[in-house]
Amino acid sequence: MMEKVEKFESTKKETQAPKALKAGNVEHVGKAGEKISAGKTERPEKEDGVYQERLARHLDELKWLYMELYGNQGFFEDLLKNLSRFYEERKPSLKKLDQAREQQPDWYRKNGMLGMMLYVDQFAGTLNGVRKKLEYIKRCGVNYVHLMPLLDTVEGRSDGGYAVADFRKVQEKLGTMEDLEKLAEECHEEGISLCLDFVMNHTSEDHEWAKRARAGEREYQDRYFFFDNYSVPAMYEKTVPQVFPTTAPGNFTWLPERQEFVMTTFYPYQWDLNYRNPVVFNEMVYNFLYLANQGIDVLRIDAVPYIWKQIGTNCRNLPQVHTIVRMMRMIGEIVCPGIVLLGEVVMEPDKVAPYFGTVEKPECHMLYNVTTMATTWHTVATRDARLLKRQMEIISGLPSSYTFLNYLRCHDDIGWGLDYPLLEDWGMLQVPHKKYLNDYFTGKWEGSVSRGELYNEDLVTGDARFCATTASMCGIEKAGFEGNEAAMEAAIQTDVMLHAYMLFLSGIPMLYSGDEIGQVNDYTYKEDPNKAPDSRYIHRGKFQWDLVDNIDLPQTVQGRLFARLAKLEELRAAEKVFDASAAFRTLETWDDAILGLVREKEDGKLVGLFNFSDEARIAWIDEKDGQYQDLLTGESIEASAVSVDGHGFYWLKRV
User: Fold this and answer.
1) Where are the alpha helices (DSSP H) in 317-367?
2) 109 φ, ψ to 5°?
3) What pTM was estimated for this model as a whole?
4) Is 402 exposed, middle or buried (0-12, 13-18, 19+ CB in 10 A)?
5) Catalytic residues
6) What is the per-residue burial (b if ≥16 Cβ within 10 Å, else e) of 223-239?
7) pLDDT at 19 (0 to 100)
């Protein structure tokens, strides 16, 4: 066993595939169970000029990076053979879409782009159910839908679908791969792009590879990290942080039936894949291309920073990770250039930006704006926009080609990963400030309107994360429960202001399904034994279609919220200054409660003012470069000493 550890943990020369995995000695399963030899291959005669041109553009760099990482010509030839095969299998309609997007590579950055994330079962039951709801999705102004994890998993050991048992099978309760393909076709006909999660750091312990590894097959054990004693895991544990120290402590799981340890960074049923093994990289690329060939437009690569493991490091953001993502970007551009890679990098800004790569050697097309989301809610609780302004200054200093996905809430918890050294300079110490934030958003703090629950609370350190819907955090739940109309109007105003701010940011805005109708926390998750231990299900409740009936009734909460959000989305889609290529910067307002932002393009300028206080404040700006118009009302306004209502905002366009 230690021989295997040495091979996978030493220098580049020693990280080639072990003897049992040498090209020509192993078979692996391709699409539809087709057996593919890993030996040297010949280029298929069917390749057309378009494919050859794309391949030629990237071949030298792809081979260089692959050989640098794996040093195995046989597996590289196998990779090339299969890239050609997946290109040949790509439908003519998708190839046509690829060519159109090659002509307009910034298609996903346009001002008309608006996303929505949803769980298929909670939103419409099945994939076919989602197809029947496309008219509603279009009415929301949405043209980019992120279907939350839907690949095969095991109930009770799924981590919300992020423990995949089969990358080429849809969960039976949701439908079939054919249903997914049909949904993608109809979405394309309606001008809607589909996003799907690609969980590449690990598989479920119920995946075929894991089952065979558990049965003792060496080839499959080498696709994970198996150790017959704790000496090597102990070396990892010295430097590798724990992701879930309370609910899933440690980075390894003991398998008593094998008397061995397996690496499990997240949960015991999620086994980390060993990307030092070229078989793993190749096979996961084939899964990636298979999903792209079903018509998926955006692949969200999950837990990107974790995919390369090395003793003596924290196993985060290692250089080899960037090599792998860069190769995936090139492979996509060769086989299916119409797709976009969205990276999930839950790190501070200086760790996130490198995943865009460089202008010459790009990696991810888009990245999540995670820190901004957490900082936004910090600003809501403190009424102090200084940290958020600093965050915006960092983003505005990045190249305009970097595209962030912006959101107020997502499927996960909110972790308070803030800039505490800076906050401490302002008198906000980390431990008491985290407690204040959690107390505020759970409604324990006097005067708080928020309602929600803690996640992964550590009773020893007092640390915890937070879960709730946007509406419940803004006070809609509390006001509704109390029947307080004044409080409800204030809560709706806060909700709308936050969405106006999110829509104004540089990048692509993403709604969380249910936010457009003010859906509040769903506490019924506690009645399901598979969900009860995980408070994140409080904001993953069933979509309340009965509330949709109210969106045309202006006196209802849903009518007021939906109409105001729709107006903002309509304005955003009409104004080219919202294009992601527009220059973006902060504007000094001389009031810590008001965030000032500016978007500028050759054909326009837009000033955004957002008051995070519940009192009227004055933004002490003085823009003397022309007359301005309030985009929402059409009224002329001087962009000087602007009075902004409590939780109010302005979108001011220079005319």
Assistant:
1) 319-335, 349-352
2) -105, 5
3) 0.91
4) buried
5) 302, 344
6) bbbbbeeeebbeebeee
7) 37
